[in-house]
Design goal:
alpha+beta, Thrombin, subunit H, six-stranded antiparallel β-barrel, 3 helices, 32% strand, globular, PilZ domain-containing protein
C-alpha cells in the first residue's frame, strides 16, 4: 500500500477480520468464497415468474432469514481455519491496515477474510504479504497479492459505498 503503488481510494473503517499465517504465498487458499447468496440474485430468480406477489415476498423473506443462519454458521467455521483475529482500520482495493494481538514480521504471508457486512453476511478473502508497520498509527500494513474477482469486486463496492456515505455526511 505504498504511495507509489496506490491507485485506489482508501477509507477508514472498523471491520472484523480473521487471518492465518501461510507457509508461503503460493500455498492454496482455504477461503474460496462467501457461500452466502446475494439478495439481488434471489430477487432476480423470481423476476418474470407467475407466482403471486405475496408468495414471492414470503419466499424472499425466508431466503433472507436463511442467509442470516448460514452467515452465522459460516463465521463459526472460519474461526477453526483462521485462528487470528484482526481489526481492520483502513481498507482499499490494494490492501488493509489492521491491528491484532499477534505481531507479524515484514514479509509474512497471510490469508485473510474480511467481514464486510453482517446481514446478509458479506465477506471477502485474499492472500497477501505483511509490508510493515505504519509509524504514525502502529497499524500493520497488508498488501493483497491474490484476491478472487468476486472478493475484489465486493471490496471496491464497499469502499465506494463508504465514500458516498462520507460525502453525504459532509453535505448535511
Amino acid at each position: 500500500m505504498s504511495d507509489e503503488k496506490r491507485t485506489f481510494s482508501r477509507v477508514p473503517v472498523r471491520l472484523k477480520g480473521y487471518a492465518r499465517v501461510m507457509r508461503n504465498i503460493e500455498s492454496s487458499p482455504i477461503y474460496t468464497g462467501d457461500g452466502v447468496g446475494d439478495a439481488a440474485c434471489a430477487t432476480a430468480l423470481f423476476k418474470g415468474s407467475k407466482l403471486p406477489e405475496d408468495l414471492t415476498n414470503f419466499l424472499l423473506e425466508i431466503n433472507r432469514k436463511l442467509d442470516r443462519i448460514l452467515g452465522s454458521l459460516s463465521q463459526g467455521g472460519l474461526r477453526d481455519d483462521f485462528p487470528l483475529d484482526i481489526e481492520i482500520m483502513e481498507l482499499s482495493a490494494v490492501g488493509i491496515k489492521f491491528r491484532s494481538k499477534s505481531s507479524f514480521e515484514i514479509g509474512t504471508p497471510l490469508e485473510i477474510v474480511i467481514i464486510l457486512g453482517q446481514v446478509p453476511l458479506k465477506m471477502a478473502g485474499s492472500k497477501g504479504i505483511v509490508r510493515g508497520i505504519d509509524e504514525d498509527t502502529g497499524l500493520s500494513r497488508f498488501e493483497f497479492v491474490d484476491t478472487l474477482e468476486s472478493g475484489m469486486e465486493a471490496i471496491v463496492q464497499f469502499v465506494f459505498q463508504q465514500q458516498r456515505e462520507q460525502i453525504r455526511k459532509t453535505k448535511m
